[in-house]
Each structure stands twice: as structure tokens, then as C-alpha cells.
Amino acid sequence: MDTLKNNLKSTFLILLSTFILTGCSDDDNPEVVIQEEVITTLTATLVPDGGGTSITFKSLDLDGKDGPNPPVFTVSGDLLADTTYNGSMEILNETESPAEDVTEEIKTLDEEHQFFFQATNSIATFTYVDFDGDSNPLGLEFTLTTSATPGSGTITITLRHEPNKSASGVSDGDITNAGGETDAQAIFPITVK
Amino acid sequence: MKYYILIVACCFINIVHNQNCDSRFYGEVHDFHDGSPIIAATIYIETLDKYTTTDIDGKFSIANLCDGKLTVSISHLGCETKRLDIQINGDSFYVINLEHHIEELNEVKVEGKTITKLTKTSQETLLKTDAIERFGAFSLGDALKQISGVSSINTGNSIVKPVINGLHSSRIIVMTNGVRLQDQEWGIEHAPNIDLNTVGSVNVIKGADALAYGGDAIGGVIVLQPFNVSLKDSLYGKTIISGHTNGRGFSLNSSLTKTYKKGWYLGAQATMKRFGDFETPDYNLTNTGLNSKGFSIKSGYKTFERGFNIYYSYLNNDIAILKSSHIGSIEDLVNAINSQQPLVVEDFSYTIEAPRQDVTHQIIKADFYKRFKKFGRLQVQYDFQNNQRFEYDIRVGDDRDKPAIDLTLKTHTIRTNLKVDSKSDRTYKFGLNVGYQNNFANPETGVRRLIPDYDKYDAGAFAISDFRLSEKTNLNFGLRYDFSRIDAKKFYLTSRWEERNYDADFSNIVIDDLGSQLLTNPVFDYHNISASAGIAYKINDNNSFIFNYGLSNRAPNPSELFSDGLHHSAARIELGDLRMKQETSNRISGTYKYNRNALSINLEAFYNHINDYIFIEPTGTELTIRGAFPVWSYNQTNASLLGLDVTANYKFNEHWLLNNKSSFIKGRDLTKKQALIDMPSFKTVNILGYSNKKWLQLNTELQSELVLRQNEFPDNNFDVYIPTIDSEVLLDISSPPPTYHLLHFQSDITLNLSKQTNLNIGLNITNLFNTSYREYLNRLRYFADDLGRNIMLQVKFNY
Description:
Chain A: It comes from Flavivirga rizhaonensis. The structure holds two protein chains of two kinds. Chain A is an alpha+beta fold. Chain A has one domain: Immunoglobulin-like, CATH 2.60.40. Chain A has two helices and ten strands, in the order αβββββαβββββ. In chain A, the strands form two sheets. In chain A, strands 1, 2, 3, 4, 5, 7 and 8 form a seven-stranded antiparallel β-sheet that branches. Chain A is globular and about 65 Å long. Chain B starts with a helix and ends with a strand. Chain B has two domains: 2-100, Carboxypeptidase-like, regulatory domain (Immunoglobulin-like, Sandwich); 224-798, Beta Barrel (Maltoporin, Chain A). In chain B, 6% of the residues lie in helices and 55% in strands. Chain B is mainly β. In chain B, the strands form seven sheets. Chain B has a 22-stranded antiparallel beta barrel. Chain B has a five-stranded mixed β-sheet with strand order 8-13-14-11-12. At the A-B interface, helix 1, strand 9 and strand 10 of A face strand 23, strand 24, strand 25, strand 27 and helix 5 of B.
């Protein structure tokens, strides 16, 4: 019984010292989480076919998906009615300095990405210009054709990661069945005059 | 042990002695606790078939004995019979201590016979082994719903958290095998990591009256007791196998225990569960399977006077979460709620894919106890828990197989309890505990930490006294003090820091400025005082009352303080608040018990007033570069909870019985003058049972479960702009689902194979009519219906 007691005592002392030792944890600061595939900026540059004033749409959200500040959507000017614009997309991560060009990564992993373009009030229609290795649309390059009559509405540009490009309507630019993850979405108020 | 050494020593001396047959065996019999003499105890010499009884002073004497070894048994009404091998060598005097308090003998009693309530003056319910075994394949939360007033808050059907009188998570203490479970219990999608197969019985104490376990159990305490071990030479075990139609699952559990008369014991147990996708009456719930593995080992030495226990348990749960509940943005949520159909329905599969959670919980415990004559019992315990939690979300690209949440919570606790029970009419309990907890949030996830790294220090002390004023009246008073300090290191986005106005109030805790992020070091101290007072009064054999008052405080948990940002698996932005204060609960309760002949009624009423009640509710949306997400914020208000739990039993004859369990609760936000969110609705369960011992001990019951629609809820609905259709749509995130009624059937028979072995076969059908329904307190109710019919066949083999 005495040995039992001694054993218990020593077991307890060992446990106690483990407890105290682990209690004195180091005071190192935690590491910053490195987030991958951060997107802060989406810019669409529209050049009128046959020349004229270029228009840019820009969405900027410097505090990203976890931050309280909403993205700021800016449109440099009004679109002209019955005009075709040649569009190109630029995607940046501006939390890094210098800013990381995410456009290149999208180009490299083109089969995993697709842009979707939607306009309300039929103010514009879109066609894809660039395609991935499987001949499915990508959308870094596109054309935008404005309506023949003036009007106003919104244009929504969505970048989906890993959409199901073979789902019904997706290769025609319909986002409904696309699935995947939204990497970026921007809603621009547009006037066509 | 002293006797033993003496006997061994004497044996050697005895060999050389001549036989002397004029010796006298005499002595005194005392109560172990207070040393008082025990009158009329029987002293029986088994080897000679001679006996005597003790006199008014507890003394006895038997003359004309030969020297040598005798086996004596000493017995007394209300005492454990004690057997002793004694040595007679001339006139021999012995003092024999008998244990007189039958209810405190649980260390040495035979399995299944000493399960008792822990309190006399609280609203306490006890679930015994058979009531738990039926749920071996399910979770703790499912098993506890048998108790009136206990419901559950679910994330699907495998993540089930118990709710006691409307309160859950950090407001409930779960004690398992003497260890306070520390498994990140703050989140609604964090279910207690308990394998029910390790549990012998469950005591549920409503409210914070059981101060020995903690002062912050505003909702209540769930005490899971292990199977008792008996003090005899024995080897026994149990195997339970069950098969289920819904989820095409099985559960297997087996245990084996070896015990010795001297007090040593050794036991082991293992459980395996495997389920595939569950189904509703109309469709598969794609990605809802589960894979659970656990085992535990225990050993120790137990006698009445002293003993120790060591225990280790391991439990791993890999639980799939309904694929349709993964939403990419608020538009998906609007579509899910408005379509009332899951977005993804695929063929049945056992595969567990993201979203899923993979949680491993380990407990190591060692405790030692000793009883002191005429004083009481002292216990010292150390335990260590390691909780490793991974949450996997549907992610893309390089992050595909990375968890979105990777937390390791380590907790060390030392506690000591002293029970002074030398007086039969009063018991005092004192206790001290200190604890250290460390949480580590792995930055490798590539997702900003929802819960930061922190160290937490706890210390507590309590004193509880129980008085038996008379045969009819019991009183209880308790007082407890707890200190806790949380020392966290947390990164805040500068924009969030400013949006919350922390720059005005907490600028002193910023330790590093990284431009877009700030590293902060919040250190908060909390002092909590809790108290309880209760009286149990028995008017006569048929009627009794219990009244109780409990004061308790709960410090905010890490989730309530620090959450900030997108919670991927819930697709919502969750915001805590550094300004959170403690919650203070004042709870009064009254119980009336009626028991006469065939009828028994138990009415439990309570009123719980909680100042600074912390709750999470939807508060709007935040637009980000990835689209809009709903925001859920932790807020504080003054709340009141009022409820009545009814349990009634009526036996028509020895075969038929009728049972009713109903619970009603009303939760009010006193500041906003509206209903509280997430309150259980009115529920009534009626059971018609038939049992017949002659028919292979048949038990059957038909159960009707009626759950009314929760008509009292806060309206947190808001309009959401959906860009693709260019219009504002109402997001109905608040409306509870309609009333539902389910029928369940269960039956079992027992075959006695031999004296030691028996086989129990059970057939249970839940949701007999395959009714479609949704439950208000299931977080996945937005996305899919609840479970359809399940037929379970369970075979239980005791050996």
C-alpha cells in the first residue's frame, strides 16, 4: 500500500510539473495568415471599335472578403448607344506591394476560370473572345455591344473559380448552372446615351 | 493492508505455537464516519458457525476460541457487510469500522445498483443505462431529448447540441467521468465529443445549482457517469451491434472489464460507427455521412477507504455536412430559402466530402481519493484534454484539401474535493480547481483566424452544505467564486478595428501595426460569484416540493469576444465584440411531485432572468469583393426565460402504461420587448407502453411526438439586392417551419442464455409514417427537410 501511495505521489508530482511547464508557454506572437488568391481589384477596360473614348469599370475592395468596407465601383464615363467595345479584364491583389497581377494566373489556369457578364434593362450584350484549352469561354477578352436606344441599368461582372463549364448554358455565358466559387463580383451602374 | 501484514506475520509465529482453545475474540464496532458505536451489529464467525451481536456500546465478545485464523463477517442493517480474516492469538481485540451511509457506497457497489441522483434540492433527472444504450449509435443530444425540458440545437442530424430550458453551448457544463469537457463548446456546429457507449448513466441538473461542477452553468449541468465496477473477482463485458436503414449505417461497440475482490480493476471499450448519406422522405441528403471511431481504457484500485483511477479516452468524429448548405453568396441563400429544395441531390454514397468536420478529442485523467475516519473523503484529480478540430469547406485551387479551420485546444485541470460527512444529518463539500488552457489556430489554413490564439487561466473555489433538518426537509446552500483570465493575440483588419470603434476604446492593446492589419493583445479578467439555495420538503408519502434559487455568472467565450470575418462553413460573417460583459442569471424554480399508486406527476417550473444575455442574430449584409454575405452579430440584452416541464406516468396495470412529457418555454428580450431568437417551441410526447415479463421480457412502446410551430420569434428578415435580376428580394431568415407530428415505435426482448449471459434484441422505428418536416432549431432547416423513416435493429449481448 505504501508503494502504491508513493507511486501515486510521484505520478502526481510528474503531472503537476507537466502542468506547470506547459503553463509557461512562450510569448511569441502568432504568424500572420497568408491568404492565397486574394483579389482586391477588378478592372474592365472598354475600347470602342473604330476608336473613341475608352471607358473603364473598376471595383476596388482593399479590405477583402473579411473587411467591413464595401467595394467601391467606379465607371469612368457613359457608354455610347449602338456601339461595340472591345473589353479586357485586369485582376489585381493590391494588398501586396508591388501589386500582384492575378490576371496572369487566370490565364495559366484558364480551364478553372470563367467570367460572366450580365446587363439589366437589355442595355448591353456580350460575346467571349478568348477560350481555354478545351475551347470553352474564359472572358479575359470580350466584346460589349450597347443597345440601339439609350437607357440605364447595371452591368454585373462575376469571376467564377472552378465553374462547371459543360453545364447547360454556361458556355453561352449563363451563370445559373455554373456552380464553383465566386472569386470576385462587381456591379456597375451604367448609362447608355 | 494493516490486517494483512499482521496476519502474514502472525502466520509464521503461529506455526511454532501449540494450539490454545481458551482465547477470546472481542472488540468494538464503530461507524466509519463519526466513530459512534453501532448497536446490534451481527458478528458471525463463518468458519465455526458462531455468532453474537454488539451491545449498546457497540461492544462484543466471543469466548472459547482456538488460536488460529478465522473468517468473520460483520453485518448491520443499512451497512455494507464486511468480511475479515482475523488471527486469534490469545485474547484478541479488534476495532471494526462499518460504513453506515448506504447512499455513499457507490465506490464499492455492484454495477447498476447504485446510480443515484446527485442533488436533493434541484431539478434533476436521471437516465439509466438502458435508456442510453438505445442511443449508442446516435449522439448525446439525441439521448437527452428523452427528458422533459431538454431539446437540441442541430446542424443537420449528426451535429446535435443539448439545450436545457432554452440554453446551450457555453451555458451548459458537460462532465464526463469527472472531467469538465473542454471541446470548443461555444459554437452551434460544435457538438459535445462524447461517445455514449462509455456512459453508464446521465444526470441532468437544470440551472446552475450544482456548483461543484462550475459556476457558469446558467443552463444546467450534464453529468455523465461511467459504469461502476464491482468489488469481486469477475470478468464481464458487453457487445452492442445495430444496423440502420436510414443512412445504411451500423454501429458496433464492445467492452470488457476485469475486476478483483481486492479492489483492482481494468477495463477497455471500443466503438465504431459508419453512416452514409441520410435521407428525407423525398430525397437523399447528399454528403451527410459520418465515420466515428473511439476507444477508452480505465484501470485503478478501489476500496471504500482509498483508491485511484486512471482513464484515457480517444474519440474521432468525421462528419459530412449537407452539400446544399454550402452557399457561395447571399443569392444562393435566398434561392435555397425560397425554393425549399436542396440545391444538390445525388445518389446515395458513403463518401464524406467537404464541407465536413474532423474532430478528435482525447482525455487523460488520474484521480486519487482517501476517506478519513470520523471526517470525510478527499479527492484529488488531474486531467488533460486535447481537442483537435478541422473544418473543411468546399475550396478551390491550391487550397482544395486544406482545412479552413484548424484549432488545437489543450486544457489542463487540477481539482480537489473534500466531502465532510461524519455527521449523518449534514454534509459539507469544499473544492478548489485551477486550470490552464491554450488555443492554437494554425495559420497554414490560409484563412484568417475566426478564433485567435489564446491562453486562459482559471481558478475556482466552492463550499456547499447539505442539511437534513428532518425526515421531511432537506436544505442546501452553496457558494462559489471563479476567476478567469483570457490572454489572446489577435489580428484585426484595420478597417474592422475602426468600424467597430475599437480604436477609441482599445488603442492600448495594439502591439503591432502591419498597415492593413493590427496585432492586438486583449487581456480580460473576470470575477464570477455564484450561489445556490434549495429546499426539498416532503409533505407526505404522496406529495413533495422543491424550491430553488440560483445565482450564476458566465464570462463571454472566445467566440463571443473575438469572432470577426467570414465563417466559411456557415457562409456568414460572424462578429463578436470585445466589449462583452459577463452574463448574470437569477433563476428561481419550483418542483411539485405527486406519486400515488399508479399515477406519478412531476411538474418543474422556472423563471430565469439573465442580465446581459449574449446571443447571435442576423443583422444585415456586408458587401465584399466576393459578393454579399449575411452578417450575424453577437449582442447583449436583458432576457427572461419562463417555462414549465411536465412528466406524468400512469400505470393501468402491470402491462400497460401511459406517459406524457411536455415542455413549454417563453423567452423574451426585455430590452427590445420582443421574443428571443432560437427558443424551443412547445413539445409534447405521449407514450403508450406495453410490457410483459412472461413473453421474453417484452417491452414495446408507441410514441407520439408533437412539436408546435414556434410563433414567437424576432423578425430579422431583410431585403437583399440580387444583381442578376436587378431587384430587392426579401431574405426570410427568421420564419420558423410549421408544426409537425411524428410517430415512433420501439420494442425489445431479452433471452437469458445462461446465468451470466443474456441477449437483448431491439427493433426501433423512428418517423414511422415517413413524415416530411423541418425543425426550427436545426440550422440546416433553410436547405433541406429533416430525416425520414429509420428502422433500427439492435442486438445487445451481455456476458
